[in-house]
Design a protein that fits this description.
homotrimer; 165 residues; alpha+beta; five-stranded antiparallel beta sheet; three-stranded antiparallel beta sheet; 3 helices; elongated
């Protein structure tokens, strides 16, 4: 019979799930907001030993990403995103006249660039949890990325795994 | 001792997993197919209270993404993807002569662009499930993205979490 | 009452989690390393029947992606990434003089391009596990993507789900 190959195994009949919705008020049109501590503290106190935490945005012009929190680098990211989907580019989505028969948000702004940027950054991040600690490399930080702010935004954070005995 | 910080906690000895493979027939080379209802209905009926649902494509020229279902916006997305990896660009992968010693799919078409587009969109999306409802913002819809159609495609949908008592 | 709609359902009071950290030594600056077998073998031997496996990098200049392992295609991917964030492009992050008051890694190299590339590829991949097998399409392979090598790297692999009885 094949031997186990994982170095770390946990079996339990007590399974736990913790969930929270966090509301943020963003301050700029494009903003990388470091939410690492917010997530880490929730997981530390969740009473979950091993499992995952999934961080999901509830918006289509925002994203959740892992990278380094270095201010010059965040400017580089903004510049790269502006090449991919320029702020002053031409977007069918921005033609409100062509969309006059659609349901449109009362605070709709021309934001085709923001949607296109969100598309490649991704709406969620799933991270492993080991011994009540989120797996996080030395330089890794978790960001909520605002791409069409300032606005009020909601993030859904769900941790699940074996219960701490 | 630290107090819990999650607003919502569930502990259970009944853990449930539901899985389905859904087959789709796509109709165009590039197509954003809204699979939100397909996923939501499965989760509603799964008998799972709190957990996650992971939606994963089984192909390398397709993707799974969350964004808004607005037809003009989907055209914008196609145009952005065509800048990133042009349909008529030059791809080593399209040189079938250079790949003559490889195993190649019998229906292989020049599709380097489709692979490159799939690469940045991502093959899966993990969404939180709260009280048997998928966490979904007002404008968020889940898309299966065909990038090399028309073809027959398979999606794997797995929901896991605490069982509804 | 609504009937279940998932084709495959599993309920269990035995929930299992297996975790491993794998260390890799990469050999080139940019390298797509096929880690499919490494993950598949761990899941096969984990004693987990149904669930998910989440593969997460612990670095900010690497990524985890699903695509086809075709050498010409991997060259195409490198070329596309070099358009998105050119190796010899201009990055604020590379200006070490401007960052002289920051904590900086002793082996810091000019790597703004590598961070920007990692940003759109993503730091993790979540795959479904059915009957102790990872859901994987015929051409799908899992890659660890080195973008600032050669370096020593760590990957976190966590499988969770119902225990094989």
């Amino acid at each position: 019979m094949a031997l186990p190959i994982f170095t770390d195994e946990h079996e339990s009949s007590d399974f736990k799930i913790c969930h929270d919705r966090v509301e943020l008020r963003t301050e700029k049109r494009v903003q990388f907001i470091d939410i690492t501590e917010l997530v880490l503290e929730r997981v530390r106190r969740a009473g979950i030993s091993h499992g995952v935490v999934n961080i999901q945005t509830k918006h289509t012009t925002t994203a959740v990403v892992l990278n380094e929190n270095e201010p010059h680098l965040l400017r580089d990211f903004e510049e790269r995103l502006d090449v991919w989907a320029p702020r002053d580019g031409s977007y069918h989505h921005n033609n409100l006249e062509a969309r006059r028969f659609q349901r449109i948000s009362p605070d709709e702004k021309p934001n085709g660039d923001a949607h296109a940027r969100a598309l490649i950054l991704g709406a969620s991040e799933t991270m492993n949890v080991i011994a009540s600690q989120v797996e996080l490399g030395e330089w890794q930080r978790l960001f909520f990325v605002e791409l069409d702010g300032p606005r009020s935004r909601k993030i859904s954070i769900l941790a699940m795994g074996t219960s701490v005995v």
